[in-house]
Structures are given as structure tokens and as C-alpha cells.
Amino acid sequence: MRKIQVSDYFIIQDGKELPYPMREALAEVIFHPDLKLRALDLLKRDDLARKILDHSDSHILLEDSEYDLIKSAVNVVQGFVRNDVEFVRRVLDAESVEVVEK
């Protein structure tokens, strides 16, 4: 599994410090038009987007297949700007964690 920090971070835009909506950005990147999604892919990604948006902790654990979907989207999408550096870093540097049954 992969662990991604989904809490907001702050960016400077037009001289103001604003929160970068990490959860929303994760949920949106998997629907980006550059991905040219088909109907079945769209539905699969909607389930993941809901999981991300409904998650209330500062980190989210994702199955490898869910993480791969996000990672591949980040690697395909074009047009990132400097404010997206932390977003991309959190995705691409996501910690791999072992899940232990209790």
C-alpha cells in the first residue's frame, strides 16, 4: 500500500498565502482531459475520487492499484506549475507501507 499526505499546504498566489486543496487536486487529476478516459475508466476513477474526498485523516492509504492510477495520471497530465511541486512530490514520493492484520 501507499501512504499519501492529503492535508492542505500553503502556496503564494498574487502575493497572498492560500491553501492548496490537496484532496481535491488528487481527486481531479485522475479525471484530467489529457487522460482521454473511456466510460468504464471514468466510473472506476469516480470510486477512488469519492474515497479520497471522504477521507478525513491527514494521510490516506491506497491500494497499489489505486496509487498506480494516480501516479500514471500525474505522469501524463501536462501544465503543472510551481504551486503544484508539493502536490507532485507527495504523489511520486508516497511512502510504501506494509499493512499488518490485528
Kindly describe this structure:
The chain is α+β, with helices and mostly antiparallel strands and 102 residues long. The chain is built from 4 helices and 5 strands; from the N terminus they run βββααβααβ. It has helices at residues 22-29, 39-54, 64-76, 85-92; strands at 2-5, 9-13, 16-20, 59-62, 95-96. A 3-stranded antiparallel β-sheet has the order 4-1-5. It has a two-stranded antiparallel ribbon with strand order 2-3. α1 packs antiparallel against α2 (39-54). It is globular and about 45 Å long. 18% of the residues are buried.
Provide a compact summary of the structure:
The protein has 102 residues and is an alpha+beta fold. It has helices at residues 22-29, 39-54, 64-76, 85-92; strands at 2-5, 9-13, 16-20, 59-62, 95-96.
CA-CA gap between termini: 16 Å
Order of helices and strands: EEEHHEHHE
Oligomeric state as shown: single chain
Q: What is the radius of gyration computed over CA atoms, rounded to a whole number of angstroms?
A: 14 Å
Strand tally: 5
Count of alpha/pi helices:
4
What coarse outline follows from CA principal-axis ratios?
globular
How many domains would you count in the coordinates?
1
Kindly state the mean pLDDT as a whole number?
95
